[in-house]
Design brief:
Blueprint: H1 7-12, E1 20-23, E2 27-31, E3 39-45, H2 60-76, E4 83-85, E5 101-105
Antiparallel strand pairs: 1-2, 2-3, 3-5, 4-5
This protein binds guanosine-5'-monophosphate (5GP).
The site of guanosine-5'-monophosphate (5GP) has 13 residues, from loops.
């Protein structure tokens, strides 16, 4: 079930602190507050898109940038292998109503 606030928009606005690991003009990445693996980083577009269902031919580059940033963070954190995971909509297990890619590596606790 979605929570009623876009917490990640509030993180982008600086209203809620985060452990930031990477930032570009359009993307922000920070450590998950309740990590499900030794490394668990959330990568988001700063734009307020709710789910990946909003991908269109017009914003493909933005969605692609999530993967590019994931690769760059993984290199920076010396991750040899990792999982990229995205929950899509409430029935897909998404809780925060803002598009985000999970980057997880090592000592995975459970499937998201
Ligand atoms: P979802 O289930 O929506 O795909 O994942 C949301 C993720 O955001 C969860 O792993 C949760 O621990 C994380 N999260 C929720 N609230 C916050 C927060 O305020 N700060 C950070 N850093 N992570 C959060």
């Amino acid at each position: 079930m979605f929570i009623d606030t876009d917490i990640f928009a509030r993180i982008v606005a600086g209203e809620i602190p985060c452990d930031k690991v990477f930032e570009t003009a359009r993307i922000l990445a920070f450590r998950d507050i309740a990590p499900k693996a030794k490394t668990h980083i959330i990568i988001i577009p700063k734009e307020n898109l709710v789910t990946a269902k909003e991908v269109t031919a017009n914003n493909l580059e933005l969605f692609g940038e999530l993967f590019l940033v994931a690769k760059e963070i993984a290199e920076k954190e010396n991750l040899k292998g990792y999982k990229l995971h995205m929950n899509v909509d409430e029935e897909g297990g998404q809780v925060v109503p803002h598009v985000h890619l999970h980057l997880l590596s090592r000592d995975f606790k459970s499937p998201l």
